[in-house]
Write a structure and sequence with these properties.
Mean pLDDT: 89
Number of strands: 17
Largest sheet: 5 strands, parallel
Strand order of the largest sheet: 2-1-3-4-5
Low-confidence stretches: 1-6, 427-440
Strand content: 15-25%
Distance between the termini: 58 Å
């Protein structure tokens, strides 16, 4: 039996060329957190599959093997064991292409240079992660929906279906994490063009891609679909290879933009969100609170005497302490609470509908005080001062500033404590003290 952790994906590479096998293994492991198994024949591939029963998520198959020179490995791995497979070959004849198409292969790649290896690695990354990528297929013809679903399932996508535009809009509302829509144009209730217009009213091109399926000869309609908001056009009839290329390219583009946006809103050290994200999302929460849809609480949290930690142990230790503190904070807050690194050793929280904020943040203070912050052989004692504001103000910035005033009171009261803001703080804390760096 396999001793591989089930949550970790496993890829089988079957190639009798050690150079190609180790090149693929190295690049795959560099790009993804997966296990890579190597086999150089049909016999050894069978042994790997039997030893790792149920744990292999994808196979990369060379068509020309010592004990299977005519692509026999495809029947074994894809048809017999049902493992999604990418075929690697030095050339592609009509006979080999029929073998590939018959066995519902993910894709085939002709091995010529390093760019093909990059393509294989990127495709492998897609296949092992596509289960989390939702695609909505919209067409009033059930037979065509089934056909597209079968194609998408070969690439392991999470597929949803709608038989018309109205149903598609309902499904999109219920599944905001759908990231690709493939829609026909001719539908009885809402046609594809109107559907695209309505989708684009709430979802941008960068967060959701749309592939419109139209007649390849209708250039005017294709232009209208693109101008309405389609990312791509797929003309009927189409080759399977073209379909996969367009789907993969649009999925890659959506994820690439997501990664860019994520990197712009994440603090690289702690992996918490940053100040930019705080005000982007926090102001949306504040707007809902002003309209009476929810209640928000803001809190400012600051590590006590953090400069002394940096001076005594060095900035690298200080950075690792910050990372550990961020993890403790995240563990003690809800997923709905907005936690960010505000700057330096400061953190900010915008919490939604939090009952008993003093109790919650006192628990967090205790978790930091009692936590074991072990850096190699060094144990670092850490404490936290916290200021809270649960009084609605005119702006989110004003609520954060009030929490900062309460934080200053916590610092002046001796640190390692939690203070709840009240209007009396405005009279007891001077303007000058509010401008001071809280880490005193």
């Amino acid at each position: 039996m396999s001793n591989i952790t089930p949550a970790r994906k496993t890829i089988l590479v079957v190639d009798d060329s050690k150079a190609i096998s180790y090149l693929l293994k190295g690049q795959i492991e560099q790009e993804m957190d997966v296990n890579v198994l190597l086999a150089d024949s049909i016999k050894s591939a069978r042994e790997k599959v039997c030893n790792y029963a149920g744990d292999i998520d994808l196979a990369l198959l060379d068509l020309n093997l010592p004990d299977g020179p005519k692509g026999e490995i495809v029947d074994v791995i894809s048809s017999e064991y049902g493992i999604p497979s990418i075929v690697l070959t030095g050339s592609m004849s009509n006979e080999l292409r029929e073998i590939v198409v018959k066995n519902d292969i993910v894709d085939y790649v002709i091995k010529r240079n390093a760019s093909e290896i990059d393509y294989v690695v990127n495709l492998a990354r897609r296949i092992v992660t596509n289960a989390d990528f939702k695609v909505l297929v919209v067409d009033d013809k059930a037979s065509f929906r089934v056909y597209l679903r079968q194609l998408l399932k070969i690439h392991q996508y999470h597929v949803l279906e709608a038989e018309g535009g109205a149903e598609a809009l309902d499904i999109l509302q219920q599944n905001p994490d759908i990231r690709l829509v493939i829609t026909d144009y001719i539908m009885p209730d809402i046609d594809g063009l109107e559907l695209i217009y309505q989708i684009r009213a709430t979802r941008s091109r960068s967060e959701l891609a749309i592939i419109a399926v139209t007649s390849a000869s209708d250039g005017e309609l294709n232009a209208k679909m693109l101008k309405a908001g389609a990312n791509d056009i797929l003309g009927k009839p189409f080759e399977v290879e073209e379909f996969y290329c367009r789907v993969t390219q649009n999925a890659d583009t959506v994820e690439y933009i997501e990664r860019i946006r994520e990197s712009a809103t994440r603090d690289q050290l702690t992996q918490l969100h940053n100040r930019y994200y705080l005000f982007e999302m926090g102001n949306k929460l504040f707007g809902s609170a002003r309209r009476g849809h929810l209640q928000i609480t803001t809190a400012m949290l600051d590590l006590d005497n953090f400069k002394q930690i940096n001076d005594k142990y060095g900035h690298l230790v200080g950075d690792r302490v910050l990372k550990q503190v961020a993890a403790v904070l995240a563990d003690n807050l809800r997923d709905t609470d907005l936690l960010v690194r505000f700057g330096g050793e400061e953190f900010c929280v915008v919490a939604v509908n939090m009952d008993g904020p003093m109790i919650v943040f006192e628990r967090i203070r205790e978790a930091i005080e009692e936590g074991v912050f072990q850096i190699d052989d060094t144990r670092v004692n850490v404490s936290l001062s916290i200021g809270i504001c649960n009084v609605m103000k005119n702006t989110l910035e004003e609520m954060i500033n009030c929490a900062d005033i309460a934080l200053y009171s916590a610092k002046t009261a001796g640190r390692n404590t939690v203070v709840l803001y009240s209007d009396e703080h405005d009279n007891t804390v001077s303007i000058e003290s509010q401008l001071l760096e809280p880490a005193l």
